[in-house]
Amino acid sequence: MKDGFWTEARLTTCFRLVLEQKHQRLNLCLFIDALDEYGGTPEGIAQFLGDISGYPHPSLTTIKICFSSRPWDAFEKRFANCPTITVHEETREDIRQYCLGRMGPHLQALGPLRELVDEIVRLSIGVFLWVRLVVEDLQEILNDASKNGTVPTAGELQQRLESFPQQLDLY
Questions:
Q1: N or C: at which end does the chain have fewer Cβ atoms within 10 angstroms?
Q2: Beta-carbon contacts of residue 105 (< 8 Å; ≥ 6 apart)
């Protein structure tokens, strides 16, 4: 297959042909992850998904789409009447338990670390990989301090947490 064969225009045309077909009953279900990582505009992909999911046509194709994304305005506006799950709301306790489990040995020695865990949970917006990277970096700081016989202050740890990039791809 030649490079560039599956262009956006060609994919759009293919979707429209499938949606307009009148020969075979077809139930199509798409699962699309990480729309917020799409290289185009959020408005463009929201428009495209809205168009194909509500395509007014006499066809034998039905389509359902389940997608994931950070809560960007373009998606929230376009799909305001659709069912949603806010995963980051559902995984808060799992992230908290992960942080407490990984930093457990330091919790007895450093009481303010519990407040730092709350901040990690809040900043993570449900992104476990970001949490893992942050916890590993904080553990390294705590382990280095322990080897040197020092204890970082809550302020130092908070400042370090705030210095970490919020976007996973920038981390």
A1: N
A2: none
The encoded tokens of residue 51 equal 């168009």
For the chain, percent of residues with pLDDT exceeding 70: 91
Picking from 25, 49, 84, the residue at the C-terminal end of a domain is 84
Contact 55, 63 (CB under 8 A): yes
Q: Are 74 and 36 in contact (CB under 8 A)?
A: no
- Tell me the two tokens of residue 18: 């499938």
Give the helix ranges, DSSP H, for 21-153.
Answer: 42-53, 73-78, 87-90, 92-102, 104-107, 113-124, 128-147
- pLDDT value of position 57: 65
Residue 98 belongs to some domain of the structure: yes
Instruction: Specify the pLDDT at position 170.
Output: 79
Neighbours of 55 (CB within 10 A): 16
Residue 2 maps to a domain: no
State residue 151's pLDDT score. 77
**Residue 118 domain boundaries:** 88-170
The tally of domains found in the chain comes to 2
pTM of this prediction exceeds 0.70 = no
pLDDT tens string 70-110: 888 999 999 999 998 887 788 899 999 999 888 876 666 66
Domain boundary among 63, 84, 105: 84
